[in-house]
Amino acid sequence: MEKIDIAVKCQQVVKTYRTGDHVVMALNKSDFVVNTGELVILAGPSGCGKTTLISVVAGILDYDGGDCTVFGRNLAKLTEPERLLFRSKYIGFVFQQYNLIPTLTVAENVGVPLIINGVSVKEATAKAIDVLDQVGLSDRAHYAPNQLSGGQQQRVAIARAIVHDPHLIVCDEPTSALDGINGRNIMMILKKLTIQNNRTLIVVTHDNRIFDFADRIAEMEDGHVKHSGNS
Ligand code: ADP
Ligand code: MG
After folding, report:
1. What is the pLDDT of residues 194-207, one digit of tens each?
2. Which residues sit with their C-beta closer than 6 Å to ligand 1?
3. If 0-12 CB within 10 Å is exposed, 13-18 middle and 19+ buried, where does residue 46 land?
4. What is the pTM assigned to this prediction?
């Protein structure tokens, strides 16, 4: 991909959820800009729209108004196969609930983004074990996800999000199930990617133990990112 200085640009994004007669405006004209190579922490109270915003950014959720581009591309305007291809190549996503595939081993789960990108099973497994080693779990490579603790599953989900060296990594509460040492270890791995490979990271968190890893903290309230003077 050509070099683009702005990784994410959301302008006036609106997202409403409808359940029966009930309408929730989860994103209320939210602006959010992230520069390439930045590690931005997205903070704010539960229910303020953090997961919704990063799901829009990562192209896994459609929105109702405004505009969102990632490395200059408007994901909403791509066809579904184009969007899938873009996401699997350039974006890594850590889900709040991990979303590991229960029928695959830990190593197979981590290798999924590589397989999607056409890497051979042998190569994908070797690379998966390498990344599992970085998060301290290579000895669990052949376990099933449900044989791991919550914190271990969270580390597997992080390994899966970075295995294909995506340009944008989006993490939803990635240290919520981790103790202090493992949380900082994960943040050091993620921080290294931004510095060495100029990757861009958005980390949703409540965990003030990891705030010092951020280049910038963006705060959300009531469906929008508070103006920080940076965008
Ligand atoms: P956060 O991640 O900051 O806790 P969310 O983005 O998950 O916030 O949610 C923002 C608002 O949208 C909340 O009021 C939540 O209840 C609502 N919401 C989120 N997902 C859905 C959904 N699938 N259906 C209906 N309402 C939802
Ligand atoms: Mg959330």
Report:
1. 999 999 999 999 88
2. 17, 19, 24, 26, 44, 46-52
3. exposed
4. 0.94
